[in-house]
Design brief:
By secondary structure, the chain is mainly α. The protein has two domains: 39 residues; 88 residues, Cytochrome Bc1 Complex, Chain D, domain 2 (Orthogonal Bundle), CATH 1.10.760.10. The protein is 51% helix and 3% strand. α2 crosses α5 and α4 crosses α5. Strands 1-2 form a two-stranded antiparallel sheet.
Amino acid sequence: MAQTFTKTMARNIFYGGSVFFFLLFLALTFDTSMALPERDRREVLDPNTELGRQIAHGKALWEENNCIGCHSLLGEGAYFAPELGNVYVRFGNNTEAIKAFIQSRPAEGIPGRRSMPQFNFAPDQLEAIAQFLKYASEINTAGWPPNKQG
């Protein structure tokens, strides 16, 4: 039963496949748009709350001081200094430890070793940065970074 492959058959396969994959694309887009609000923590970022304002201020400080020039955050940025996507977990789920670490810089260390500069942040700025890093650590990143050290 050898049957020849005709233009009509090819056209029907093309149109049928195109319709199938277009419908699949629409279904996956709809599924993603329904899942994002559950994963997104928009209530935390509400600018009408104190915590939302602190997180926004911390992000602004992150950008103004070019922290991404040395650190990576969730895989984006430079790899000169440690990944900060999980720094809150790394410091024992404690914002006070993050603030103390930032305040203690630069540590007198080994000559020739990289060290973080002292930015002389005010207490409210330190709190804002710590809250921003806490928020970033709690983002559902599907297992990134792959280990606790980043």
